[in-house]
Protein 1
Amino acid sequence: MTFDHPALLAVGLLVAVALAWAALTVARRRATALAAAGVAASGARRARYAGIWLTVAGIAALGFAGAGPSVTVPVSHANGTVILAVDVSGSMSAADVAPSRLSAAKTAAEAFINAQPGNVEIGVIAFEAGGLEAALPSTDHKTALTAVRRLGTGGGTSLGSAILAALSAITQRQVVLDPGGSTPDIGYWPSATIVMFSDGQDGGAALTAGTGTAATGPSGGAGTPITGAAAAVAQKAGIHVDTVGVGTVEGTTIDVDGYHLFTALDPDTLKSIAQATGGAYHPASNASELNGIASSINLRLTVTNQPLPLAGAVSALALLLLAGGAALALARTGRVI
C-alpha cells in the first residue's frame, strides 16, 4: 500500500490518539468518582462511550483517507503489439486465390485490423527480398489500414528478413543476426505477436537452366537458415509468429520478366515457423477462409499492476463512523458532542 500524502496520515492518527487518550482519561476520572461515591459502574454507563469511540475511529479513518492510500492490483488487458507482415513478392500476384493472393491477403489483414480492440497497437511490414516498415505500431488502426491498402507486389521473398523487420518494429531498434551464429537477446515481449501472410515461398525463385521456367514449389518445411535463425530470436523473446498460408498447394503459373514461373503454397515452411515460435498455422486456400482468420488468431492477455485508490471508500467509512458516533451520543446524552 502506498500513500500520496503520508504526513496527513500521521496528523490524523495523532489527533485520533489524542482524542482516545482524552476519552480514556475522562472515563477513568468518572469511574473513580463514582467508586468513591459508592456507585458501581453499570453497563449502560459504559455504553455511553460507544459514540465517542465511533467518533475517534471516524477521525482516524478521515486521516487515513486524506493521506491518499492506494494498492496495486493485477489487471488483465487484451493489449499488446501486433505486427502484420504481408508478403508482397512477385509470387503473391498469382490468381489461384481470386482475385490474387495479395488481394486476398490484404482483405484478410484489413478484417484482422478491424476485429482488434482499440488498445492493441498494430504495425504493418511489407516484405519481399527484405522487410520494409509500412506503418509503425500504433493504436491508430486507420494508419495500419491505409498501409495495407497501399501494398503492391514485386521482387523475391525472404521470410527471415520479414521476421527480423517485425522484431525491429516491436522493439523499436534494429534486430540483426549475429554472424557467429548465436541468437541475439532482444528482451522478453510476451504481449507481442507477429501475423505473417505469405505463400511460404522462401529465398526467391531459382531458374531452371535451359527451360526458361522458374520453379518455386514447396521447400519441405525447413525454409532458409536465416529464417530458422530469425524464428529462434522470436521464440527466445516470447513472441509468437502466427502464419497464414495464402494460395493453393496445386499452384499456378505466372509470367515474370518473360519467364513462366510456377508457384505453389508451401505450408511446411509456414508451419515450421509457427511451431518454432509457439504460434499457429492457419491454412487459407480461398478468400472466404482468409476472412475468418481474424477470429481464429488469439492474442494473449497481459497482466499489469495498476494502482487502485482507496480514499473514496475510506472516506465513506469515516462518514459512517462519525454519523454512528453522533447518533449514539445523541441517543445516550441528548447531545451530539
Protein 2
Amino acid sequence: MLRNNPGAKTGSSIEAQLASGGGIIVELPGDADWRALGEEIRSAVQIDIRFPSFKDGRGFTLASQLRTRLGFAGRLRAIGDLIPDQAQFLKRVGFDAITPDRSDLAADWARAEQRYSVVYQPANDAVLTIPARRTGDDLEALNARYRQSDALEILRDALETTWRGRIALLSSFGTEAAVSLHMIARIDPATPVFFLDTGRHFAQTEQYLRTLVDRLELTDLRVLKPDAEETREEDADGYLWQRDADACCALRKVRPLARALDGFDALVTGRKRFHGGARAALPVVERVADGLRINPLANWSAEQIQAYFQTHDLPRHPLTDMGYSSIGCWTCTAPSYGGGGLRAGRWPGQDKTECGIHAPAPGAAVRPERR
C-alpha cells in the first residue's frame, strides 16, 4: 500500500522529507516475498513492516532481506503486535524505528531503546551493523581496509569478525578452487561451503569435490540443486542449455543459490581480476543483487595461484592436464587450447561469459512466469 507523495530520497534528507510530509511510504506484511518487491519499493523513503503477532518472526527476515539483498537504504519501521523484549533484535536486522500497536508499554519500550541503542552502534570489535553495511561508503571503507591485507587476513576477518556466523564460501571445485578452500580449512573447516550441483558436472569435478572435502576435512558442504518441479516444467527434455543458456543458468545456478542465501549476509568467491572480462576491475568487497560478495583473491595473479598449489602440495583438478583452464557444466565447457584467456572454454561460440550468480540481470533470481 503506497501513501503520501513520490520523490523519495536516501541519506540525511530522509527524516526532513518525512517531517515535511513528502516521500512514499510503503507498508508490507511480514510474509512479503522480497524477490517481488523491487519495483514497489524503488521510490520509497520509508517501509513499514507489519508484525501480525509478536510470535511471528517473518518481519525480521524481510527487514534483513530488504537491507542486504535489495540494498534498501531508506527508513525501516516495525509496526504491529510487538513487545519490548524484541527491541534489540529489531535493531540488529536494520529497523530504524518501532511503532507498536500497544500504547500501555511506553516506559518499557523507553528502557528497551536505551539498551538496544548500544547494540545498534558499531562495537569495539569492528563488527559492522546492518545499517552500516548497506551503504556504499562503508563498502569503500572495507575495501580500503583490506587493500593492504593478504587473502588469508581478509578471510580471517570476514569469517571471525565482520560477518561471523553469516558468511559462506561458494566453490565450483574447478581448477583453482583448492586455494580458497585450503584457506577456509586453515581458519575454520566448519565454514559452510556451497556447491551448485547443476546435474551437468563432469564426473571428474564430482571426484575432485570428494577428494578436496576429505583432504581438507571440510565439515559443512552444502550441495545446492535446482528445484525438481521447476526443472520438469522448464527443462523437460534436458536441452534448455542449447535453447537458452541464460535460462539454464538461472534454473540450475542463480535461483538455487538465492534460496540458499537466506540467513547469510556475505558470500566468499574465488574470482580474480586476471580472469579478465567483467572481472578485470573486481573489488575485494562488492554488492550484487542478492547481497555482498567477498573476493579475497581478487588481486592474485596466475603465478601466485600456481605457487600456492606447490607450497601446500594441493591436488589438481583431473581435467587440468587435458587443456581445461576453467570448468563448469560439461554442456557448456571446452578445453581452452589456442589462447583466448583462462575462461575461453566457457560457453564456446556464445557471447555469454558469466552464469549470473554474481551479477544477475533484473529478475534473474526470481522464477519466471509459467506459461
Protein 3
Amino acid sequence: MPTRLPDPRRTPRFAGVSTFCRYPLLETLSLTEASALDWLIFGVPHDAGVTYRPGARFGPRAVRDASQYVKRFHVIHEVDVCEVLSIADAGDAPVSPYELKAALDGVATWAAELAQNPANSAPAKLFAVGGDHSIAYANIKATVARLRAAGKLGPQQGLAVVHFDAHLDTVDSVWGATWGHASPFRRAIEEGLIDPKAMLSIGVRGPLNAASDLDYARSTGIQILPAEVVIEDEGTARARVLDFVATNKNRPAYVTFDVDALDPAFAPGTGTLCPGGLTSAQALGLLRRCAGLNVVGGDVVEVLPDRDVAGITAFFAAHVIFEVLALDAVTRKVICKVNRNATSSA
C-alpha cells in the first residue's frame, strides 16, 4: 500500500502540521491501513543519558520541521520510496525525563506494541528519532521483540548492526552509571539483542579518555571503520561496507546513525563534537552502499537544535530517515522483480 502524501503543488511544504517527511499520522489511518504499514517513525524526546551538552530532547521537533523538504524519489537507488512502502508518523513515545532506564524500558514497551495486528506476520518496522543515543537501546529492544513475536528472529539470535558514530558507545559506566548514551550497544550486546560479530562502526575517531575504551569492542568482535580510513582511502572504506553487506545480507540488520559521525562543519548541532569527521557526501555514500541488507529498524540521534547553525544538522538527520527507508524500498523492489520474473518463467 503506497504512502499517502500531501500534493506539494497544492499544499506547499511550508504549510500544514509538521510530520516526519510529511508522512501521515498513524492516528489518522484506518485500522486496515495501520495494519498494512511497512514503517513507523516516532520521536523519542529524551536526553537524560548525555555526558556533555543537553538539548537533544528537542531533536524530534527540529527534525520533523526540517524533513518537510524531503522528497520521495531516490535518484541513486532509482526507487520511489512512497510507492513501494507504506509509512506513518507514530508521534512521540512517552518518556520520563528523570529516570533513564525506566524511560528506555517504557519506550521499548510502547514501541513494541505500536500498530500490532496478530494476523500480520510482518509487523511494521520501527525508526526512532532522538534524543540522545541511549534511545537506540529502546528501539532495538522493541524491534527484536516484534521480530521474535512474528517468528522472524530466533530467541537466541541478535541483530546485525551498521553504526555511524564518532564514538563506539560501548563504555561500561560513566560516573558509576551503566545506562547512558556512551553504553547502549554494550547493554544491547549483554542482553543478546545484537550480535557484536555482525556489527560495523563507521566514523569512529579520537581522542579518547583512555586506550582501554577500545577493549570491549575489540574483544567482542565489533568491526571498526575509523573516520581516517574513510577520509584517506574512500575506496577501501566502501569495499569494507560492501563486504559487510555481502557477509550479513541474509540476517536482520539495524542501522543507527549518530550525527556526530559527521565533522562539526557539516553537523554542528550536536552535543559531543569531535573534529576530523565524515562529510555529508561520504556518510551518505557509505549508507547507500548498505543496499542489500535486510534492514528491519533504525534510528538517527543526537541532534541538538540550539547549537544547529541554519538547521543543517536537523536537515541532514531528516535525510538519514529517507536513506534508511530507501534501503528497504530498493530491497523490496528487487524481490518483487525476482518474483515477477519467476512467475513469468513458470
